[in-house]
Write a structure and sequence with these properties.
The chain is built from three helices and eight strands; from the N terminus they run βββαββαβαββ. It is an alpha/beta fold and 149 residues long.
Length: 149
């Protein structure tokens, strides 16, 4: 399981011209699920996400988490995070899990983050053609793979 975290001042998801989700200060999280992922990946990444100290403290040092600042979280599914690009110029998505595997894990990840934050997590719509808008604050962008050493 992979997440790409972006610290944002705001972010939104629009589908077919309708804004379906929006957050203010917080984290936009792009989530990619692969076939080998399970509950352990969800536990590791959800804990890491809400406790990652990437917000400034009173001294301008990244020393606060999204929990500490009371920020919001938006999670958007993105199978392209598992793209293989070593051969040729057309990415392969063979490692990305099919919807029957990825949808339940995506939903469980969102539920785990909600429980840790003690507030609702905003989402996109799984499998939809989404336009994701954001203002990356910093910019701060961090990639975490639950399988990486």
């Amino acid at each position: 399981m992979r997440i790409l975290i972006q610290r944002v001042t705001n972010a939104s998801v629009t589908i077919s011209g309708d804004k379906v989700s929006e957050i203010g200060q917080g984290l936009l999280v792009l989530l990619g699920v692969e076939n080998a992922d399970n509950e352990k990946d969800i536990e590791y990444l959800s804990q890491k996400l809400v406790n990652l100290r990437i917000f400034d403290d009173e001294n301008g040092v990244m020393n606060r988490s999204v929990l500490d600042v009371g920020g919001e979280v938006m999670v958007v599914s993105q199978f392209t995070l598992h793209a293989r690009t070593h051969k040729g110029n057309r990415p392969s998505y063979i490692d990305a899990a099919k919807p029957d595997v990825s949808i339940p894990l995506y939903e469980k990840f969102c539920e785990a983050v909600e429980k840790l934050l003690n507030k609702s997590v905003k989402t996109g719509q799984f499998g939809a053609d989404m336009q994701v808008a954001l203002v990356n604050d910093g910019p701060v962008t961090i990639w975490i793979d639950s399988k990486a050493p």
